[in-house]
Amino acid sequence: MSKTFKADEVASHKTADSLWIIVDDEVYDVTKFADEHPGGKKILQRVGGKDASKQFWKYHNEGILKKYKPKLLLGAIEGSAKASAAPAPAAAAAPKPVLPKPTPKPAAAAAPAGEKKKSEALEQFGSMVPYGDPAWYQGYHSPYYNETHAALRAEVRQWIEEKVEPYVTEWDEAKRVPEEIYQDMGKRGWLAGLVGAGYQAKYAKYQCASVKPEQWDAFHELVLTDEISRTGSGGFVWNVIGGFGIGLPPVIKAATQSVKDRVIPAVINGEKRICLAITEPDAGSDVAGLTTTAVKTPDGKHYIVNGEKKWITNGIWADFFTVAVRTGPEGSGMNGVSVLLIEKTMPGVTTRKMDCSGIWSSGTTYITFEDVKVPVENLIGKENQGFKVIMTNFNHERLGIVIQCNRFARVCYEEAYKYANKRKTFGKTLISHPVIRLKLANMARKIEGTHNWLENITFQAEGMAEQEAMFRLGGAIAALKLDATQTFEFCAREAVQIFGGLGYTRGGQGAKVERLYREVRGYAIPGGSEEIMADLSIRQAHKVHKALGMKL
Ligand code: HEM
């Protein structure tokens, strides 16, 4: 902290011409800011020259200070802890444990997945709001995480808290995220690990600082996705990984080598963008009914593509489109579907941004393909066997949705929990009212249930080959997606109720829950609607268990 002030010096700055206030032992010059203060000028003048910490925390959340500090901060009160402390990195802000630490288990017991799990990560991390973070953040035993997961968690959280969270509402309202953010994720080596197919070291120019490529597992992907979802903005999460996480895996798994070499490095290094285009105005979960056609030219060198795609995340910014097309005759259903890589530079590709209820900064797009000439080398997988490529992609997509929904549900809970501890009604804090505690209890038990099932399925997937995972876990993942979106919906609803009018207002203290409430349907409908998920969960499990020798 560079400059310090005595309290009586601050006290002399209490007029409209020179207006200073103290918040948590730090001194802010709000003279110019007062005119644009959304809460009003007079309210600031009333606390001019004084310690306004109590009033400040009544009306704002942490994000405000992070955002305005660089502009308004003058220094600290002389003799205060703030005066001597160097600003602590956000990720290091977790309180010190007050209870004895849980005893680490012997490495062997904590290492069911083999070599990679060397030791448990038992350090406390985060706000320690009960259930406000997964249990392993709060010092409880877990067989799934080790010190590399903890290191990645800290790395991502610090970045999110400093570079993203203070601006996320602004970006959502502007319906876009600065391009540097996605590029930064590439440079941090994070995109290379988010494709559900191991860390793409071969194509990565950059490497993740806290995890070596050979250590990377599905739980690192879980931690990374979970941490970026703490922003409480589906628009932000889908902006940076929504198109990428589902558009790139088919290329990695089934494209020709020349396409892989051209597309994978550009995308994982954050230089280009990719999206997945399956849904059409008239074909959503019913993939077999899609009508976009790809007809081979007589010389067999190209496909001519015609059709429309709708609700395509990131489409507006994408350089590459992983597109499901019909190469078989009309009525060929799932046996006539192929996947093609179409490029923005190809004549006949047009994109138009769509307006939806939520997830605003994700760039939801309507795409038209008109006589687009696509080289046959851009075929992903085999002709007429694209359905398999699409189906293989679904598990990864759905698990991503589950991770995001689960953290969004937790964000709703955490925000509501914190607010319930500061907001007073009828002379006591909200949390003192049993009816509010009941809401929080029901939120927490649902969130923990989903999270534990998510971890278990992630662990199962780690131990299975892709085809086996598709067969054995497809049903359970569908059920989990259903569970996650319904938990998210419940928690968003209850959090808005706890926030009252602030949860119904865009921006301000209830910004996250207001936004998330609008985003629930954006998760419950795509990637397999709740109805399709419920049906599939039983149908698929029945098929699997019949094959496993089920006796009825
Ligand atoms: C560093 C000083 C401050 C900054 C940067 C600041 C910034 C803001 C911002 C951005 C908002 C919009 C709502 C939001 O995004 O949360 C807001 C609202 C508000 N602020 Fe401040 N503020 C400051 C100090 C204060 C103080 C000291 C008081 C009270 C004495 C105050 C009272 C309010 C009120 C009443 C609202 C409206 C809340 C609502 O809509 O429910 N602010 N402030």
Automatic annotation (TrEMBL):
GO terms for cellular component: cytoplasm. It comes from the Eukaryota. GO terms for molecular function: acyl-CoA dehydrogenase activity; flavin adenine dinucleotide binding. Pfam families: Acyl-CoA_dh_1, Acyl-CoA_dh_M, Acyl-CoA_dh_N, Cyt-b5. The keyword Oxidoreductase applies. Residues 2-78 form the Cytochrome b5 heme-binding domain. SUPFAM superfamilies: Acyl-CoA dehydrogenase C-terminal domain-like, Acyl-CoA dehydrogenase NM domain-like, Cytochrome b5-like heme/steroid binding domain. GO terms for biological process: fatty acid beta-oxidation using acyl-CoA dehydrogenase. Keywords: FAD, Flavoprotein, Oxidoreductase. Residues 93-116 are annotated as: Disordered. The keyword Acyltransferase does not apply. Its cofactor is FAD. InterPro entries: Acyl-CoA_dehydrogenase (IPR050741), Acyl-CoA_DH_CS (IPR006089), Acyl-CoA_Oxase/DH_mid-dom (IPR006091), Acyl-CoA_Oxase/DH_mid-dom_sf (IPR046373), AcylCo_DH-like_C (IPR036250), AcylCo_DH/oxidase_C (IPR009075), AcylCoA_DH/ox_N (IPR013786), AcylCoA_DH/ox_N_sf (IPR037069). Belongs to the acyl-CoA dehydrogenase family. This is Putative acyl-CoA dehydrogenase.
